[in-house]
Amino acid sequence: MPLNRPALSLGAGPRGVQDARRWVVDTFRDMGRDDLVECAEMAVSEVVTNALLHGAPPIQVRVRGTREHPRVEVSDGSQEAPSLPTGAPDLASIDDFDLEGLDDMLLTFGRGLSIVARASDAWGADIEEEGKTVWFTPASGFSEEDGAPGIITGAATIDATGEQAADPVKFHLLGVPVRDYVSFHNHFRELRREVRLLAMANEADYPLARDLADVFAHLGRPLTLGSVREEIDRAQDAGRDTADLEVLMGRAEAREVARFVELLALTDAFAREERMLALARNARQVAFQTWFLSELVHQADGLDPERWSEPPAAPTTSAGSHSSAARHSSVS
Q1: Is 191 contained in some domain?
Q2: Which of 20, 126, 298, 330 could form a disulfide with 48 if both were Cys (CB 3.0 to 4.6 A apart)?
Q3: Domain check: are 132 and 182 in the same one?
Q4: Contact 324/306 with Cβ under 8 angstroms?
Q5: How far apart are CA 294 and CA 305, in angstroms?
Q6: In a 10 Å sphere around its CB, with 0-12 CB exposed, 13-18 middle and 19+ buried, how is residue 314 labelled?
Q7: Residues 192, 315: one domain?
């Protein structure tokens, strides 16, 4: 059964570390994983302390994954990657910790992520446009060695707007509903991060995760281009409901987006089978996303831009339920 509990928002100061520890302990005990409580508590204390000392608000902690493979994530608003540990600290000095005061917190924790490495089967940091997430899968006991190596992901995918596309084409996406685009961008970002972390932490149990992560990284450019996000931001600031977007992509790259349409349908199927943490898309999301991506494919083939048109009220079908169904219900 997937875990998708609401995140816990943390305030500044040592109280945030205490709150995170208690919440993670309660969560693991509620799911019947008492065998992981000790390592989860120790590791989340270290990660949250680092976020408080070196990160930026907002800071949140959540537990995701499944009961068999739970994963603790601590997110903050800084894109600065954590320093990977260079050695293993002596855990004997932190067996009995007390976080009532700031001095105690600084003396007990904040000494790098070696503790996390020794308390985890896998761990790392995922860097995104809005900040970073430090994650770990707690072990059933502390390692006597240096522990699991940390993995930094995501940094290379942030807004690669400087790349020159081969055979560049300027694509026009007309009448894009701002709220639908923002929803699509957030949905894509969550899926991209989820498959990337599954590939890092549980690839043996999710063999498709690595392939899905590679495809998301390669084909998600029209959603992450800085120029597109800037135009959406301008539309929001001006109170406009729609925006006309221009996307510069290579013709071959745009045609490959057809695979992205298929991939999103595949993740929907996984979500309905509770094999993904993200929820399956609703009918409107499917209609908009299919139109948006299919426009790139069809314009790459020389067709004129077609403006988005609203789907009928309360649609009961999936992709292609709007008036442009004939053009966008499938891509080749």
Answers
A1: yes
A2: 20
A3: no
A4: yes
A5: 11
A6: exposed
A7: yes
Q: Beta-strand (E) ranges in 87-130? A: 120-128
**In terms of DSSP bridges, do strands 150-153 and 120-128 run parallel, antiparallel, or are they unpaired?**
parallel
What is the residue type of 202? N
| CB burial readout 202-222, b (16+ within 10 A) else e | beeebeebeebbebbbebbbb
Residues in the chain: 332
The CATH number of residue 57's host domain is: 3.30.565.10
Q: Is 74 left (phi over 0), alpha (psi -120 to 50) or beta?
A: beta
Between the alpha carbon of residue 239 and those of residues 116, 233, 242, the distances in Å are 45, 10, 9
Under DSSP, the state recorded for 318 is: S
Judge whether 87 and 66 are in contact, CB under 8 Å. Answer: no
Q: Would you tell me how many other CB atoms lie within 10 Å of the CB of residue 158?
A: 13
What is the predicted pLDDT for the residue at 107?
Answer: 38
What local confidence, expressed as pLDDT, does residue 152 receive? 82
Query: Can you tell me whether residue 2 is helix, strand or coil?
Result: strand
Given a contact cutoff of 8 angstroms between Cβ atoms, the answer to whether 131 and 76 are in contact is yes
Tokens of 137: 């899968």
The pLDDT score that the predictor gives to residue 142 is: 87
Q: Spell out the residues 6+ positions from residue 42 whose beta carbon is closer than 8 angstroms to its own.
A: 94, 115, 119, 142
Ranges of the chain with pLDDT below 70: 1-4, 85-112, 155-166, 201-208, 218-219, 274-278, 313-332
Q: Is 64 part of a structural domain of the chain? A: yes
Q: Tell me, what's the pLDDT at 90?
A: 45
* pLDDT of res. 235: 92
Q: pLDDT tens, 114-127?
A: 889 889 998 988 88
CA-CA distance, 254 to 299, in Å (whole number)?
9
* Short-list 53, 36, 184, 52, CA closest to 121: 36
Domain count across the chain: 2
**In-domain check, residue 161:** no
